[in-house]
Amino acid sequence: MIKKTLLQHRSISVSDFRCTAGPNEKPFAEQFNCHSVSYVRKGSFGCQSRGRSFELVTGSVLVGFPGDEYVCTHNHVCGDECLSFFLEQELVEAIGGRREAWRVGAAPPLPELMVLGELAQAAADGRSDISLDEVGYLFASRFVDAVSDRTRKPVAIKARDRRRAVETAQWIEANSHHTIDLDAAANQAGISPFHFLRLFANVLGVTPHQYLVRSRLRQAARLLSDEDIAITDIAYDVGFGDLSNFVRTFHRAAGVSPSAFRDAARGNRKILQERLALH
Q1: What is the average per-residue pLDDT within 26-38?
Q2: What span, in angstroms and rounded, lies between the C-alpha atoms of 193 and 186?
Q3: Alpha-carbon Rg of the chain, whole angstroms?
Q4: Pairing of strands 35-43, 2-8
Q5: Within 10 Å of residue 163's Cβ, how many Cβ atoms?
Q6: CA triplet 45, 98, 199: central angle to 5 degrees?
Q7: pTM score
Q8: pLDDT level of residue 269 (50, 70, 90 thresholds)
Q9: Contact status, residue 13 vs residue 7, Cβ threshold 8 Å
Q10: Cα gap 201→208, rounded to integer Å
Q11: pLDDT at residue 152 is higher than 70
């Protein structure tokens, strides 16, 4: 089993698991240390827990409950890959749902969970401007909704909460060149990360991390248009951690590379014309 920790925050952590076990491997008992939901993104395995047996395939979800023992087997397919979200008690309480929802053991491939699982993988790979902790919160919440047959009612947002979301967006904008995660933004707003994520997205239509990335892109576009600064310096100045991430994210947003965007801003209209001709 190969484990790679992708994220470690106060209320949630995310790990990538890659197992190469096969039918000849001797299974052994393990124990869940906290609540968890693991999205099976490749392969298959069996799981026995609390007297029940499950067969998990691509798209299934393994659900962990603190203290429960489980045994995984690979009688049919060799190996699997999972993206696992480990949730602290405060986050579980914020998400809500009956205790039974967290003790189902496993969930079958459900479309509402599969699409979020793939979005989470895109975030883990750097192919999305939503953050991994944000999509982890969404995945866990949607899991509870799905297995509980729970439908969330539209949220009535008070004027005070709207102001809180707007003021935090302004804070993100002013500090976007610094490292800002969901916990920091929620702390600025004065509420828990889970409730802040829902509030911010409901009021402004984007997640906090999406707003952060787009603030950085806006500032990068301005610098590329107006300033004679090296592209590498722009990437770091606006808050991107490395050049490749900046180039990839900018190209996804603008349809052209930062250097091509700079050329277009300096009068080379051919670049933008060719881009528009593709649509």
Answers
A1: 93
A2: 5
A3: 22
A4: unpaired
A5: 11
A6: 100
A7: 0.85
A8: low
A9: yes
A10: 7
A11: no
Under DSSP, the state recorded for 21 is: -
Cβ 81 vs Cβ 18: under 8 Å: yes
| Cα(97)–Cα(61) distance, integer angstroms | 17
CB 208 within 8 Å of CB 172? yes
**15 neighbors 133 (Cβ within 8 angstroms):** no
> Tokens 């099976």 sit at which residue?
40
Residue 24 is predicted with a pLDDT of 83
How far lies 196's CA from each of 207, 210, 231, in Å? 10, 14, 34
Amino acid at 57: V
CA pair distance 130, 211, nearest whole angstrom:
9
> How far, in Å, CA of 124 to CA of 139, rounded?
14
Separation between Cα atoms, residue 273 and residue 56, nearest integer Å: 49
Who's near 4: CB < 8 A, 6+ residues apart?
Answer: 15, 16, 18
Give 58-74 pLDDT, tens digit per residue.
999 999 999 999 999 88
- Tokens 């979005």 belong to 119
Q: Report the alpha-carbon distance of residue 55 to residue 236 in Å, rounded.
A: 46
